[in-house]
Structure formats: structure tokens, C-alpha cells
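Supplementary Note 3. Input sequence used for the single-chain structure prediction.
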Amino acid sequence: MTEQYHIPVLLKESIDGLAIRPDGVYVDVTFGGGGHSREILQRLGNKGRLFSFDQDADAEQNVIADELFSEGQKSGRFTFVRSNFRYLKNWMRYYGVEQIDGLLADLGVSSHHFDDETRGFSFRFQGPLDMRMNKRAGQTAADVINNYDEERLADIFFYYGELKQSRRIAKAIVAARKQKVIETTEALTATVEPLLKREREKKELAKLFQALRIEVNREMEALKELLLGATELLRPGGRLSVITYHSLEDRLVKNVIKSGNLDGKVVQDLYGRIETPFTNVGKIIIPADVEQQENPRSRSAKLRIAERR
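The predicted structure, written as C-alpha cells, is reproduced below.
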């Protein structure tokens, strides 16, 4: 199931960026198919520890303990945490961990979610408008589409999807739902397609579905909490390795690395030196052409690596 579930992006580059210490404590906040976690475990010794987060029950099925350890290694090194990564600090406190040596985040949506027509993440398939990462709780995309007022829908499409026609799209949705509740990906697509230019139709639909997904899962709020929590937990010399897929999340990561805060407001000391808890490690890394061809999801990926001062 693991290989089909998700193909890890920038696997070697993101793990190399952590500069793993065999006895260190590491966190993979986006377990998914377990590709990144398994690579981290390969580099940890008996005293090392890895905590892997995922709120999706499907991901937990990819935890196969026997595969994680070679002969002579202790099985207590790995802990799966079935939770949203926004609660990173709470869970580390629960497990008695005060500081960590590195954190990896592969943001966005796994290939498993895009390919599962029952989850509603892609306009390529007919299915329910769900889009919840955690199927156990929270509102669905259908709830958003049918219950939000026109102005709120327009704001979501504009800010999270960067759609220039956000107001026209919101107006069309509100008009359509008065006739019939919009419950499927097919119904939503049919409602907005007349407003989209043929040559940009797929890109615009992708932006629309992205905006809905971000709202349903409160992704930006979760990322903000994660970044601030990671900043507090990383010990001096600890590494942050984050893969982003769109400008909104990349901007937040960039701001925190640059300034230590979400707004990117730079503070200088009396000598004019920028006060930030991080130092950039190298330049932004993007997938090689070969990886982009083999894994289309990687085409928009950017990897930022930073070290805690």
C-alpha cells in the first residue's frame, strides 16, 4: 500500500537537509505513505527517536513496524501520532520531549488523496465534495459551498486560490445552490465551467479546489501554529526542512526563517544585525527534471532548509 499511497518529493534532499544525528530526536509532521519517515529511521541509531504525525486514518495503515528496523535496532525509536501537526507542541510535551533536533514537513496533499475519488480533492473524478484530511470531524467542502455567504466564498477563492474571477464564481455558486444543493465535484465543476476560459480551465479549477481544501482543513492556521511551535522546540543547531507547493504556504515559511515571525517583520539589534532564530542553509531547492517528469506533484515543490541559531 505504501508505494501506491504516495511518492515522496525531494526525498534525499529534504532528509540530507536535516543533517541527522544518529542519537537525535526528529519529527516528520506529514507521514503520509511513510517515505520520508523510513529514510530518517535508516539514519538513526538505537538512541535516536522519530515522531511522525498524520491526522488521516488512511496514513496509519502505512505504519509497518517490522520494516522500520534492521537487525540489532530497537523498536522504541518510532512513534506514530494520529493528530494534526498544529498540535505539535502539545504532543511533544505529552511525550516528555523538550527539544528536537530536526523537523520535516512535506506540505500540501498526498498523491493518495488526489487519486481517491471518494475524498473529493480532485475535479478529475466524480465524487462527494468532502476534502477533509481528517474524515472523523469538521465541515466538508459541500458545507462550505452551500452554507457560506457570497462575500465569504469570494474571499476564500481570491485569497486561497488567487482567482481573479472570485466574485463571479461565488455569485454563480450561490445562484446554483438555490436551485439544488451542490454536493459533488461534478456539480461544482459544472457550475463554474461556463465562467472559465477554455485554455485555462484546468488551472482555474485546480485553484478553486485548492482554495476549498485550504479552507476545509484550516491549512494556513495549522501551518502558522506548526512553524511557531517548531521555532520553540528546535534546539540550537537543529534543522527545519520544509517542502511547499504554493505561494501562500511558501511565504509563511520564508517569513519565519527570515524574521522568526509570521509577518516577516525584520527586527535589528543596536548594531543593525537582523535578529532571527534561523540561518538559511543553502538556496531554495526544486526537484530535478527527472523527478518532475516521474512525479507531476513535484513540479511546484520548493524546499527550504534552515538551522536554529
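The radius of gyration is 20 Å. The longest helix spans residues 201-217.
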